């Protein structure tokens, strides 16, 4: 379930996600970038990052912040899951905390490492709630307090660049971005990376992939993968498959037929169909 934040928080938080899977068998979950950062609260059981050489499970914290990921990450669950995710706007955490997004690149950080003891208190109180309504009230109250204390940051270049990239669904040239913002390529890249954690071109590729997933989800009739590839801004189908596999670890066809979609960028992977 996806829920929008109140208007006064929408510049920082894109949406909240509430995901539940009552199965108690082992699950392999795959997470990849959608251009945003976020906080995960795993409320039923801890997620597993993987196994070490002695087959000991490496558990993720009960709540953690994730930065812009490099590629994809596999995580596992061997029990029922109830996950609450706060999905920030691409530069939301930079606006709220004044910390460069590049410092969080590919990082997983415990919630107290981001918000101190207030983060741990939020985790405990959230675990006590039994309804989505109460969880939302708690989250909104917490982030209103954070927003009231946020530092002053200059988001002019980042916001202008972000708006241009999103409106064009990632299809643009750097010369067009320079012309649109009126700033040099080097200055745009520095400010954008500071705010988002990725440079404009890497961010644009992720946006194009997300646009492709949207087109794939809504395709009708006999529209081909090649046609959707062009519509999403890729030069050809092989270009799409190469970028898609680089970021997700699977092909578009495998994504479509061999995964369970919890969200666009958070899936349960199944064995390949050998039929």
Automatic annotation (TrEMBL):
Where along the sequence do coiled-coil regions lie? Answer: none
Spell out the SUPFAM superfamilies in the cross-references.
Answer: Homeodomain-like
Span of domain HTH araC/xylS-type: 159-258
Q: Which GO terms describe its molecular function?
A: DNA-binding transcription factor activity; sequence-specific DNA binding
Do the record's keywords include Transcription regulation? yes
Alphabetic keyword roster: DNA-binding, Transcription, Transcription regulation
Record's superkingdom? Bacteria
Transcription regulation in keyword set: yes
Which PANTHER family does the protein's record reference?
A: ARAC-FAMILY TRANSCRIPTIONAL REGULATOR (PTHR43280), HTH-TYPE TRANSCRIPTIONAL REGULATOR EXSA (PTHR43280:SF2)
Q: What is this protein called?
A: AraC family transcriptional regulator
């Amino acid at each position: 379930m996806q829920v929008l934040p109140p208007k006064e928080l929408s510049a920082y938080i894109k949406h909240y996600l509430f995901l539940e899977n009552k199965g108690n068998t082992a699950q392999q979950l795959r997470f990849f970038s959608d251009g945003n950062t976020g906080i995960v609260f795993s409320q039923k059981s801890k997620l597993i990052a993987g196994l070490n050489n002695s087959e000991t499970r490496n558990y993720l914290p009960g709540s953690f912040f994730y930065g812009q990921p490099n590629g994809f990450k596999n995580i596992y669950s061997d029990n029922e899951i109830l996950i609450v995710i706060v999905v920030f706007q691409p530069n939301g955490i930079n606006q709220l905390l004044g910390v460069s997004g590049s410092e969080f690149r590919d990082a997983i950080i415990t919630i107290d490492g981001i918000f101190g003891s207030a983060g741990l208190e939020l985790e405990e109180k959230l675990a006590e709630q039994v309804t989505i309504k109460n969880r939302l009230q708690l989250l909104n109250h917490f982030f209103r307090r954070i927003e009231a204390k946020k530092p002053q940051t200059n988001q002019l270049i980042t916001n202008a660049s972000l708006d241009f990239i999103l409106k064009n669904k990632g299809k643009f040239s750097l010369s067009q971005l320079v012309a649109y913002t009126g700033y040099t390529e080097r200055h745009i890249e520095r400010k954008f990376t500071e705010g988002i954690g990725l440079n404009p071109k890497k961010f644009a590729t992720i946006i194009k992939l997300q646009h492709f997933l949207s087109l794939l989800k809504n395709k009708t009739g006999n529209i081909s993968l090649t046609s959707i590839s062009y519509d999403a801004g890729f030069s050809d189908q092989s270009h799409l498959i190469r970028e898609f596999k680089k970021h997700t670890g699977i092909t578009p066809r495998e994504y479509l037929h061999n995964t369970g979609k919890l969200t666009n960028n958070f899936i349960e992977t199944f064995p390949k169909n050998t039929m």
